[in-house]
Amino acid sequence: SCVGSPREIGAVENALRNTPALGLGKHIFEPVIGTVFDSLAEAYDFYNLYSWEVGFGIRYGNSNTNRHGYRTSQDLVCHTQGSPQKSRGEGSRCACPAIMRMHRSDDHGWSVVLHRADHNHHLSGTCGEKMQCNSHRRIDQATKDTVKHFRENNISLSKVHYILGSMNGSMDTLPFTKKAPHIVCQKVNREQRDDDMKKTTDLFRKMHDADPDFAFRLQLDQEGRVVNLIWTSGRSRRQYSCFGDVVIFDTTYTTNRYKMPFGLFVGVKIHYQTVIFAGILMREETIEGFNWAFAEFVSLMGGKPPVTMLTDQCRAMEVAIGMTLPGMRHRWCKWHVFRKAKEELGGIDSKKNGFKQAFNNAINEMLRVDEFEKAWGELKWAKPFFKDKYCGRMTSTQRVESANHMLKVYVPKHSSMNKFVSQYDKLRKDRNEAEDSEEHMNNQATGCARGGWPIERHASKIYTMVVMRHFKDELVKGQSFIPKELEAGKLYDLQHAYAEHKPSWSRSSFIVRIEDDEHYHCECGLYPHAGMLCGHVIWLMIHLGVRRVPDCHIMKRWTKNGRDLPDVLFDGGSGDLRPALPRSLMQNLMRVIVLELLKMGNKSDEASRIVMKHVAAAKCELRNTEMETPPVYYSRSRWSTGVECTKEDLRQCCCS
């Protein structure tokens, strides 16, 4: 049997059963000597229901404990009980004598031994008045959890209140005021701020438990405070092995409560979707900080640096890249350069209608370096310096800006560090879900295009749907050019059929050189820049009767097999590529069953009694079987950092 086992019929249920026998003017929940409760919480709820009927609020009063510290008696009193504070002059305390006193019974329940119903003050008459009492503004635990889940998804408090009203039938039926959810959120925020770093490392442990390849790094100052924190998942690390050739890094997001800039390392996947490789919180954006960030990022990703990295025009970042990753190509984000140019140009950018378009065309369309060197000098962002450098079709950090925008939807302002990490993980998982959806659509698509050129049909068999759309767009562009042979089988000049209609500065012809009968080199530089064939080459291949895309021009990262990952890339197993744990499935099943029970229990009083009886029995059984989960300890290694949150241990973590 259950210790302190619930009676077959609780006090609240018993009172509701006896309602038909009550006469006019009688209270449903009025306490009487000998009324028994299973717990203090049940007693509080019962007396609070009674106080609502009468028109007052309640609170816990005096209690007695024995020499072993065991509580033996408890008073529940009117909220106005006690002496008024003389220093304040005004107040609600008026020494009200109303009280319900209980003693603990032998079976650990509680029994009413005294009930005094008299009051010496005005009693509330309307629902609005009654709800001003603290005890009638209380939110039950289930509703608190609902409020917490809403806020974790960054839903505003006003919307939370309206949603709860809708769930309860109307705003008028809510048993608490609009301020109550705000108080709940304040308490949750305080709990999250307390021991924030300890909770963050505990969260990392849980992530490591679910994903053995999850890893994080810490950098501490002399006082043991966190200076930099970087973390990544097993799936992100495996994706980096396939798509880490080009990485975008940006640190413009600073909404956590410590005002620490948040940086994202992102790339692009086979479906041209954004992939998040790692997240980092930094105390300061200094050369030393970026040196640590880049070195730890490469270390977490298996020691292989990216081919190209795009950043904003941060001088400290540029110096750090030169020191830490000297062999990597560094390019500035074109979007940041354009924004800076707009600030420097002032009103000319908007006052002269033709200037902006001409300026953009000059930046995006010119191909020859010498055209730019005459006026601009050596740059790190203009197309002439980009066209033969692989960037995976990326010239801007706007993918990071987009990820930062999504993160703002997930993370409320002034979040604690552990909340920030938790919500970031939700964003990462949603991005993975979007990839899985795109992968499913790609697999369901037909294997090859119907009709069209043979090379087009071959391309549709190897490329993903998104990349194939780019292939077709390039093919359409290429059809505007007429190939002219300059050297048999080796050199061709593709001239635009309507060159006279193109701008004077725009090129109307492109030279394509062929080596070893399969290596095509076009002046436009699209393939070395993006890993995709340009329209000039595709159209020339069709003109020459080529039926298949040469293997040397098929970049695996854009193919349907582009994310073929090794079974074990890092020590620790398959990480979060494993099937999801059945816990979430079980939780959903239980939720469906509980909602069904609620619906069935609402049909009649007898149905309600049956549901409450079996729910009470289930709670009793769960109490008896409930055990503390034994702690799980992880060995320190290069990839997993299961450590206690102490200054010395954190230092060991950083040095491991």
From TrEMBL:
The keyword Disulfide bond does not apply. GO terms for molecular function: zinc ion binding. It holds the Pfam family MULE. It comes from the Eukaryota. Residues 510-545 form the SWIM-type domain. PROSITE patterns: ZF_SWIM. Residues 417-444 form a coiled coil. InterPro entries: FAR1_DNA_bnd_dom (IPR004330), MULE_transposase_dom (IPR018289), Znf_SWIM (IPR007527). The keyword Transmembrane helix does not apply. Keywords: Coiled coil, Metal-binding, Zinc, Zinc-finger. This is SWIM-type domain-containing protein.
